TrEMBL record:
Residues 457-520 form the Glycosyl hydrolase family 30 beta sandwich domain. GO terms for molecular function: glucosylceramidase activity; hexosyltransferase activity; signaling receptor binding. Gene3D superfamilies: Glycosidases, Golgi alpha-mannosidase II. It is an enzyme of class 3 (hydrolase). Residues 108-454 form the Glycosyl hydrolase family 30 TIM-barrel domain. GO terms for cellular component: lysosome; vacuolar membrane. GO terms for biological process: alcohol metabolic process; autophagy; glucosylceramide catabolic process; lysosome organization; negative regulation of macromolecule metabolic process; protein catabolic process; regulation of macroautophagy; regulation of membrane potential. This is Glucosylceramidase. Belongs to the glycosyl hydrolase 30 family.
Amino acid sequence: MNLVLFSKRLLWGIYILKLIYEEVCCEQVPCAARSYGQSSVICVCNATYCDTVEPESRLTQGYANMFISTLAGQRLEKSVINFTQQPSKTAQVTLEVKPQIMYQTMLGFGGAFTDATGINILTLSLPAQYHLIQSYFGRSGLEYTLGRIPMASCDFSTHTYSYDDNPGDLDLVNFSLTMEDIKYKIPIIQKAQSVNRQKILLFGSPWSAPAWMKTNQNMTGYGTLIGNPGGPYYKAWAKYFVRFLEEYRKHNITLWGLTAQNEPTDGYIHNFPFQAMGWYPDQQKDFIALDLGPALKAGGFSDVRLMILDDTRLNLPYWAEKVFSQESSASMYVSGIAVHWYEDFIAPTLSLDVTHKEYPDKFILATEACITSNFPSKVSLGNWENAEKYTHSIIEDARHWVTGWSDWNMALDMEGGPNWVNNFVDSPVIVNAKADEFYKQPMFYAMGHFSKFIIPGSQRIEMPQVTSLEGFESIAFQRPDGSLAVVILNRGTSPVLTAIHDPVVGYLTQTVPPRSLITFTWWR
């Protein structure tokens, strides 16, 4: 081991010990707020300072933790409040929690280890990198438990590349991970794992096969694999997945899942600007049944959770009905259905309900979301409305059988990149490399209201939604240890005096401020 690598590992070990000490001894470090003229503020972190989340208290019956974030500038601020045995006569809303009625089990919340994420994290000094990693994955941070890994390049890379750019190499003799995996993805994943007290469920998603495997001889644009399912190119592409899993395992990274293709409908769009590969559901069905499923089983990866679609819910339930048709064996290899939030505004939640009803043994997981509509700049520092959009989507999805929610890039630069086709977007964390700072957006804290408290194994429980107040949304969960968690979003401009009724404990009455987000947790 060379001296530079040894020094870096030693410093990282010191930072982890520092993190453990801070978690044991210290209270919440407050947000260092800064305004960029938007509706709210960002929290500034650097090599010497970064805000933290105060640990949740294991309280006696009759008390609850409350964590609140607001447009006014509060960020996951903790307090302890008490239950009463009588309801407030002035409460505007009463939420009845019914733990005896249970729905889906949650997998978790997280984001993607893109090239752009790794590039931006590595532009920071090592102490600032430590703060960023622990902010997402550490006990004093959001404790993400989902991580998506693009298989080779996507638009949030600096160029197009695959793991085998050698035409005709159907046996994948020349398959190898790239510099981007070795430098930007794997080290960041390993650091995230080193500070996380839970298992991170990692899943891979391909954007395109190598250009020489495709009908258009290009990783972008309108094109699909050459030939038909069961043919040599489909066999080679299936083997590509297995080789990816094997190579990551050599770095002590075991993947929990795979999606069969990122946004398969993109590859049937003429002149699509970045990496894509087209699939119709019948093609995906046959590829899984004839090639990918058997290849994963033969390679010793039958326990890897394979997901179909990985595209907007506008394609449901049709896509699932085709892939899981009775005449196909594809269903036996598939564990779940992946959805993206784009076009949700025209895709009814009924599509999720119908899909779950038809295929209750297949989980539904939200695997990508990002803010793309800010103009003229894609990065909108301090935009509270974006936090509300994230929260609304998570609550809506979870109320309709979705088992988890994964954000897109975890860290982007001040422009919203890098992105080789200038498809810039926003992110919960924005890195300012010149100042050796990173900025936690309101979206970051919106994610934390779920990822920190709705831990894997939690189950959604019945709590009727309030329909009389526009912009007021809520959802409830029972966690693995039997404790309960309720998340409330108030997008309205007026405070709402709210009572949560747990028949075992009593009434929890609290004013939910305008433009705020609150998570309550308690033990029964």
